[in-house]
Design a protein that fits this description.
alpha+beta; HIT family, subunit A; five-stranded antiparallel beta sheet; 3 helices; 5 strands
């Protein structure tokens, strides 16, 4: 694993706007927010992607993600959030340390964090979802192989 900006934040070498910390997880405000309250939840374990994360650190993230989300929603007044987690460069991961984005959504505000109109999807984040198809046979075959590895 490379020594990422998040590793340096965890070690206290780089300043951050910390909103939560325990033995396994740190949460900070994103310095390039897509909306008010945009935060990052980062396990302290040095793993690049979620599949490299230990069960212990994954469970710790799972414990605090809902609590941090509730606090952000209450403080910002957001009625909805996107929880976003990219794994690998091909999936849009920019920092080589697993992390989760909590991105509050304010559709009623109709603007992004820079105050520019963004009527389509609310502040700062736009998604296009192009679903494919899955046949019964494909699902059975794929499911069989996945279950075997679990």
């Amino acid at each position: 694993m490379t020594d990422s900006i998040f590793s340096k934040i965890i070690r206290g070498e780089i300043e951050s706007h910390k909103i939560y910390e325990d033995d396994f997880v740190i949460a900070i405000l994103d310095i390039g927010p897509l909306s008010e309250g945009h935060a990052l939840v980062i396990p302290k374990e040095p793993a690049v992607t979620i599949d490299e994360l230990s069960d212990e650190h994954a469970a710790a993230v799972g414990r605090v993600l809902p609590r941090i989300t509730r606090a952000i929603k209450k403080v910002t007044g957001a009625r909805a959030v996107n929880i976003l987690q990219n794994n690998g460069a091909d999936a849009g991961q920019a920092v080589e340390h697993v992390h989760f984005h909590i991105i509050p959504r304010f559709k009623d505000r109709g603007e992004n964090v820079a105050g520019k109109p963004d009527i389509k999807n609310g502040p700062g984040l736009q998604m296009i979802w192009n679903p494919g198809t899955l046949t019964q046979e494909e699902a059975l075959e794929l499911g069989k192989h996945i279950k075997r590895l679990l």
